[in-house]
């Protein structure tokens, strides 16, 4: 089965349109349609429902998709195995990073990468951790540096990880700052500034409150921790932020719970990493 035909099929599904798949593969839209038709003739089944504007898999397409991804991955692995013998660390490297890691960790890694491997061409995307997982499954990047959580699928492998200690915080002028040992019941009386409900940080904090039968008073949920820090610093509510972000605009609230999260670099199982991806992972592991 021709890998180019499978690649066209997978990209139409991942990109959600023939035109975007053509752009990603540097082909014309008629060429993508021709490859898909050739694949459907080869397998003897329609793979995509073209009856409306939405791209939908047929039953046959849904059965073929995981096999197509594995075949494409093996072709990718074979190419790397042959090129790896040259021993050079050069070429394009596509990486996804959460906003927090992009601001507080990635710059030091990239400075080192650029100094030691100047022939690596970097392609960076910044987004929340949950969106990063979706793009990784579409083979948009080799590595993603994100907040790790139990909701990650079995298709991912954690290549490096580290603990990120967090603290309950508020503005020095917030009423909670005047309480010597605030309990969760005290925090429940005031607005909470937390990331959105699907995030690992929200789930961790929410679980603490649920265990004590308390409700969170959520105020303007956002996944940008820098935005949360600013809002907490001007007294709009309390929050839970990485200890590394706490400065004079905030005070740590001595709540009797230790809160932390796991950050890490993930890759797709069964898909080999390029030398440049391995180099960045080694740097990230060393600098943690």
The helix fraction, in percent, is 40-55%
- DSSP E strands, number: 11
Structural class: alpha/beta
- Structural shape: globular
Please provide a written account of the structure.
- With 288 residues, this protein is of the alpha/beta class.
- The protein is 43% helix and 21% strand.
- The protein has helices at residues 3-15, 18-24, 29-43, 59-83, 99-104, 106-116, 129-137, 184-187, 200-211, 225-233, 275-287; strands at residues 48-49, 56-57, 91-97, 120-126, 143-147, 156-170, 191-193, 217-218, 238-242, 251-252, 259-268.
- The strands form two sheets. Strands 3, 4, 5, 6, 7, 8, 9, 10 and 11 form a nine-stranded mixed beta sheet that branches. Strands 1-2 form a two-stranded antiparallel ribbon.
- α9 links the parallel β7 and β8.
- α1 (3-15) crosses α2, α1 crosses α4 and α6 packs across α11 (275-287).
- The radius of gyration is 23 Å and the shape is globular.
- The two termini are 44 Å apart.
- The mean pLDDT is 92.
What labels would you give this structure?
11 strands, 288 residues, alpha/beta, globular, nine-stranded mixed beta sheet, 21% strand, two-stranded antiparallel ribbon
Layout of SSEs?
Layout: H1 3-15, H2 18-24, H3 29-43, E1 48-49, E2 56-57, H4 59-83, E3 91-97, H5 99-104, H6 106-116, E4 120-126, H7 129-137, E5 143-147, E6 156-170, H8 184-187, E7 191-193, H9 200-211, E8 217-218, H10 225-233, E9 238-242, E10 251-252, E11 259-268, H11 275-287
In short:
The chain is α/β, with parallel strands linked by helices and 288 residues long.
């Amino acid at each position: 089965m021709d890998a180019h035909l499978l690649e066209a099929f997978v990209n139409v599904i991942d990109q959600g349109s023939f035109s975007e798949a053509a752009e990603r593969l540097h082909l014309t839209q008629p060429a993508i349609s021709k490859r898909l038709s050739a694949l459907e003739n080869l397998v003897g089944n329609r793979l995509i429902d073209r009856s409306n504007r939405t791209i939908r898999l047929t039953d046959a397409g849904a059965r073929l998709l995981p096999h197509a991804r594995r075949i494409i991955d093996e072709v990718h692995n074979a190419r790397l195995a042959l090129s790896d013998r040259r021993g050079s660390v050069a070429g394009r490297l596509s990486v996804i990073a959460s906003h927090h890691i992009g601001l507080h960790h990635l710059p030091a890694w990239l400075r080192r990468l650029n100094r030691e491997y100047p022939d690596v061409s970097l392609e960076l995307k910044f987004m929340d951790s949950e969106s990063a997982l979706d793009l990784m499954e579409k083979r948009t990047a080799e590595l993603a540096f994100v907040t790790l959580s139990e909701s990650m699928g079995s298709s991912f492998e954690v290549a490096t990880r580290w603990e990120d200690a967090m603290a309950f915080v508020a503005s020095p002028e917030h009423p909670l700052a005047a309480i010597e040992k605030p309990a969760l019941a005290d925090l429940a009386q005031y607005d909470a500034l937390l990331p959105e409900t699907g995030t690992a940080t929200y789930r961790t904090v929410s679980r603490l409150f649920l265990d004590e039968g308390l409700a969170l008073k959520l105020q303007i949920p956002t996944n940008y921790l820098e935005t949360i820090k600013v809002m907490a610093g001007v007294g709009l509510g309390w929050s839970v932020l990485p200890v590394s972000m706490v400065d004079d605009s905030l005070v740590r609230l001595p709540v009797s719970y230790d809160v932390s999260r796991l950050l890490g670099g993930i890759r797709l199982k069964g898909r080999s990493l390029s030398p440049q991806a391995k180099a960045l992972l080694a740097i990230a592991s060393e600098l943690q």
